[in-house]
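User: Hi! I'm working on a homework problem where we have to compare a predicted structure to a textbook description. Could you give me the structure for the chain below?
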Amino acid sequence: MMNVWKISLENIKSKPLYTFLSVFTLALSIALLLGIQQLKSSFKYQTENNLGGIDLVLGAKGSPLQLVLASILHMDDPTGNIKYSEAKKVAKNRMIKTAVPISYGDNFKGYRIVGTTNEFLFLYDAKISSGKGVDKSLDAVIGATVAEKLGLSVGDTFLSSHGLVENDIDVHDDKFTVVGILEPTYKVIDRLIVTKLESIWDVHAHHDHEEESHSEHNNDEKHGDHAEEHHADEHKDDEKHGDNAEEHHDHDEHKDHDHEEHNENREITSLLISFKTPRALLTLPRRINDQTNMQAALPKFELDKLYSYTGIGFKTITWIAYLILLISGMIIFISLYKMVKERSFDLALLRTFGASNFQLVKLVTYEGLMIVLSAFALGFGLIKILLHFLFQYMQTDYLKGVLQPLAFSEIVPTIVLVLIIIFASISVAIYPILKMKVSTILSNEK
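Assistant: Happy to help. Predicted structure tokens:
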């Protein structure tokens, strides 16, 4: 009995150049098609899942897209800060269901520290896997990716750095304590360190106080001679005016007033708002933008706009992949057709030894299928390697979290398209076999 698989394999080995070109070009087109599909589906997943029901982002004036990227996907710098008291006035609107404040500006080893309220976890359906939630200032709950990459566990402490980029220069003195670790959500919260709003305020208040103390210390050293004179003047004034208690009381009242004013002047980065009714989308954003010194950005609209910009690049690369796939199909057709024409005598002999036309067609088909299977294996390997080196080159851990594995249903269209083109090439290549006249071929062979 004729071993069709073995003969097909020998045919492939006999023409290494055509085989290499066929497999490589087909693998390249498969890698491009799957890579684009993976990036598109990952982008869609991130935009849909990280919105978490957020209908509007309230923040400082500037680029609305930047505000959305910074406040929801945490991929950009914020447009600035807004007064918490002003944001709370907006949050009291009867059309608003929830308003979650966030404040950030520090990081630990490149991972952002976000000060917020307990409602923030609910936006991402995040649950505590070990430990507990934050109870007081400088407590921190860390995302699954942060815990994995930094090796942190419940009870560990760390010092935050000023800014959103990892640095060892501007490090705060206040220690954060890890009190909980979140379960993996495959959303942006996996890469965040979550704490109370008061933590961010306290850390920066101490930081500002240290700078002021340092400045005052320098002034004291510069004007040390005046201190004694000032002390003498104070002593004379005290003897002159005996109302120290009243002055002290006035000072305390002034201090309390300053404290209240300080609370009113506290700032946040943005407010993540969910509406009670879709009708709010029509009126509230415009009212905020026109009547306040803050801006209202619609995350779905901004991310759809971003997707339309990136979609041009996606389409370009997709059409390039289709072109390479078409070229690959032509190379496979030429290879198979060349084999059929050059080995017509051998194929005619096989017919005389009892092989049917169907077996000869299987011979060509199996050769094409082996090329396709090899190309798929190489294509999957190429896309994994290319994405890995891309992330290494960009030196960012964020994209690793953004990238989502492709579902089988998303791979199927590419597989079907490739098989259609390959079977079309095979169908044309086997035409000479179907029209082959064995007696004529054998009589003409010298």
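For your comparison, note the following. The chain has a mean pLDDT of 79. The chain has two domains: 4-47+311-444, 56-210+236-302. Good luck with the assignment!
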